[in-house]
Design brief:
Helix content: over 70%
Largest sheet: none
Number of domains: 1
Radius of gyration: 21 Å
Number of strands: 0
Length: 156
């Protein structure tokens, strides 16, 4: 076996080892946290829907930012985004709420916007904060939001 073949074989074994570790870590994480994450997401959806029926879009976003400032991290970010999404869906429209929100179809503009809003919210450099504003952009591009915004327009 030549030295280049040995190097190639070593690289393949190394890459396979990393893949095995990542998969094993994922399985361990899911077994340890998966059920609670699913339960938390279901509860967050119900809470968001209930909250949304009593507030407007701006109130949903302000509450989500406040919650995330108190409890940050991966799992809390997921539950917070589910809660924000269901709150927005159930909420009343806020005039001009989506006006400055870039389209979810423009990832570069959305990333810049999300980073700026995270910084304004005191969450600069938080790796999960931008997902909150991406949730808002997704909502603002939705059919449900278009239907709500039509209700805000004065009769013509």
């Amino acid at each position: 076996m030549t030295s280049s073949e040995k190097v190639f074989l070593g690289v393949v074994v190394y890459v396979l080892g990393i893949i095995v570790l990542v998969v094993a870590g994922g399985v361990w994480f899911w077994k340890r946290h998966g059920t609670s994450m699913i339960d938390d997401s279901k509860a967050a959806y119900v809470q968001g829907t209930s909250e949304g029926s009593a507030t407007d879009e701006k109130g949903c976003l302000e509450a989500a930012i406040s919650r995330y400032q108190e409890r940050r991290g991966f799992a809390h970010g997921i539950a917070n985004n589910v809660r924000l999404g269901s709150c927005l869906d159930a909420s009343r429209a806020t005039p001009n709420f989506c006006q400055s929100i870039p389209s979810a179809d423009n990832p570069f503009l959305l990333a810049t916007f999300s980073a700026q809003r995270c910084e304004q919210s005191g969450l600069k450099n938080d790796p999960f904060c931008p997902q909150m504003f991406q949730q808002v952009a997704k909502y603002c591009s939705s059919e449900g939001r278009r239907t709500k915004s039509a209700d805000l327009e004065p009769p013509g």
